Amino acid sequence: MKISRSFDIIVNVLFPLLIGYFIYYAGENGFINPMIKNYLPDGLWAYSFTSALLIVWNREINIFWIIIAFVAALSIELLQYFGLMPGTADAFDFLMYAIFILTGLLTNKYYIKLFQSNHRV
């Protein structure tokens, strides 16, 4: 299967964000288990952010930017803990961020193959 960069962005950045938004919205209306509503959107955001960074860097892992992703996730929780950002600081949130950042990194090889096959003649 050949994919374009635009398709990569849609599948790995926009789609996870939309799913997270709908999970959170449906959870507000009581249609989704609170555990899923409270944690899965955070993980999807982290996956999307990691994927965006990888796509910008042509799917080459740039350690500096991956560290920035972890720092951003931790910063969100710390800002919530100190009351500087709305929300509830939660170690499980950070765990979800870490799991989904790592998922983005681990699936990167798969997407490299798909993206590179698009350039072969």
Describe the structure.
There is one protein chain. This protein is mainly α and 121 residues long. The chain has one domain. Helices cover 76% and strands 0% of the residues. It has helices at residues 5-28, 34-56, 63-81, 91-106, 108-117. The protein is globular and about 45 Å long. It starts with a helix and ends with a helix. The mean pLDDT is 90.
SSE diagram, text form:
Blueprint: H1 5-28, H2 34-56, H3 63-81, H4 91-106, H5 108-117
Number of domains: 1
Shape: globular
Order of helices and strands: HHHHH
Fraction of residues in β-strands: under 5%
Q: Could you say which structural class the secondary elements and strand pairing correspond to?
A: mainly alpha
Span between termini:
14 Å
Helix content: over 70%
* Rg, Cα atoms, Å: 16 Å
Largest sheet: none
Overall average residue pLDDT: 90
Q: Low-confidence stretches at least 5 residues in length (pLDDT < 50)?
A: none
The tally of helices reads: 5
Tell me the total number of β-strands.
0
Name the descriptors.
single chain; 121 residues; 0% strand
